[in-house]
Write the structure tokens for this entry.
Amino acid sequence: MKSFFTCILVALAAQISAAPIGASDKCRGFRVAPLRHTEGNSTDFAANDEVSVKWTVRHSKVQYIREIGLFSAKTDEFLHTQFRSYPGVDASIGHYAFNLSVPLCLQREGEYYVRVYSSTPGNDGDCSAQTPPFELTPDPNGNYTIC
């Protein structure tokens, strides 16, 4: 029985020592700013608004921004892709503008956030950061009976 526990401890030690040291350092410093309109300072958002997401990659190994997704702030559920590209946008640019795409049936979630997925050398989508939550005004003329 004693040798069984010794084998388990040796196997566990081997797993721990095989883990890359400083793996979290590659993402350290990757931050995303609050979502903004490309023009004006309004904090009211609606579907199809032209918005911009800004980020900083200071002290991180982030090279590309490969995906931007819309999420429910209430449930953390993925709702809709805003941008996807491979290998992605050069992260050193620091921002990306897009039309906020929110399908009609998802416009009454309440609060949302945008998550930005980035890549480091040799890895895809291994770092992510998100905006603070924001509210979206549903389309007042939308036919929500189909939802």
In short: The mean pLDDT is 85. Helices lie at 2-18. The first helix runs from residue 2 to 18. The domain at 23-146 is CATH 2.60.40.1930 (Immunoglobulin-like).
